[in-house]
Amino acid sequence: MNKDTTKQGKLIVFSAPSGSGKTTIVRHLLKQEALNLAFSISATSREKRGTEVHAEDYYFLSANDFKQHIKDDDFLEWEEVYRDNFYGTLKTEVERLWALGKNVIFDIDVSGGLRIKRKFPEQTLAVFVKPPSIDELKIRLKKRKTESDDKINMRVAKASAELATAPLFDVIIENDHLEKALQDAENLVGHFLTTENKK
Question: How confident is residue 19, by pLDDT bands cut at 50, 70 and 90?
Answer without folding.
Answer: confident
